[in-house]
């Protein structure tokens, strides 16, 4: 690096740290909120399309 | 444009765009980084410190670009009440702040060997620092209210007022005597060796696609947060 390695490499290291940190924080934010939403929403109950269908024919709704 | 004010429709479009943006970002980094670090020529005056330019300049451009998106999204939110426009603005802020901080820090690393000092209170550097504080203020103000709508509105107004700083940053090196070098592209032509342009554009592309990937991710997080708030209200009712 022509004697300037002490300036060039830290610049690239800062870029890598900044880009990766923000990416990880953003990804975690999505997964945390999705998990919270799944926890708050009641689980969906499956309703058969045909009220006469009690699942005896294979359970295909 | 108005069609994408619907969060569900916007997220469908985002899901289609995101894999392409990820792929293009990886390609730009994979080709651009070796060119920037190894294959591009050293500057005839600045030597190998010019390699900092491939991080510094794209960061500066992205800092301005993200603020432009934030201001446009804020205007759209204030005028048409587009919820997605506000989410895009809010999602852009941390990314823009990170790029602006990166620009300032890499500028200091470049300034120390070339100017003999990492910092001067020069028009370009100071206006970039003001941009960083505007980002911090926008994020703090947006989260400072109990009612999210009040925070969104206050932050949107700040984003619009702060956009006056963008032309000041752009033209600061022309309007005032500055230690900072002039713009790479101007009416007079290109101020760097043309061999430096391919790695520079590749790194700009990499940062741009990174921005697309992360902003879409963060918009999705904002949509989920709104759904969480609605689900909490349903439970409380």
What can you see in these coordinates?
The complex is a heterodimer of chains A (61) and B (237). Chain A has a domain at 11-38. Helices cover 59% and strands 0% of the residues of chain A. Chain A has one helix at 5-40. Chain B has one domain (20-38, 48-236). Chain B is 76% helix and 2% strand. Chain B has a two-stranded antiparallel ribbon. Chain A binds chain B through residues 1-4, 7-8, 10-12, 14-15, 18-19, 21-23, 25-27, 29-30, 33-34, 36-37, 40-41, and chain B through 37, 42, 47-49, 51-52, 55-56, 59, 94-95, 98-99, 101-102, 105-106, 109-110, 112-113, 210, 213-214, 217-218, 220-221, 224-225, 227-228, 231-232, 235.
Produce a short descriptive summary.
The complex is a heterodimer of chains A (61) and B (237). Chain A is mainly alpha-helical and 61 residues long. Chain A has one helix spanning 5-40.
Question: Which SSEs are present, and which pair or pack?
Answer:
The complex is a heterodimer of chains A (61) and B (237).
Chain A: H1 5-40
Chain B: H1 7-39, H2 53-80, H3 83-115, H4 123-142, H5 148-162, H6 165-175, E1 185-186, E2 189-190, H7 197-236
Antiparallel strand pairs in B: 1-2
Question: What labels would you give this structure?
Answer:
A: mainly alpha, 1 helix, B: mainly alpha, 2% strand
Mean pLDDT of chain A: 79
Strand content of chain A: under 5%
Helix % of chain A is 55-70%
Which overall shape of chain B is indicated by the principal axes computed on the Cα atoms? globular
Q: Look at the helices and sheets of chain B and give the structural class.
A: mainly alpha
Cα Rg of chain A: 26 Å
Judged by helices, strands and strand pairing, the structural class of chain A is mainly alpha
Q: How far do the termini of chain B sit from each other?
A: 35 Å
- Tell me the strand order in the biggest sheet of chain B: 1-2
**What does the largest sheet of chain A look like?**
none
Query: What string gives the helices and strands of chain B in order?
Result: HHHHHHEEH
* Percent of residues in helices of chain B: over 70%
| Low-pLDDT sequence parts of chain A | 53-61
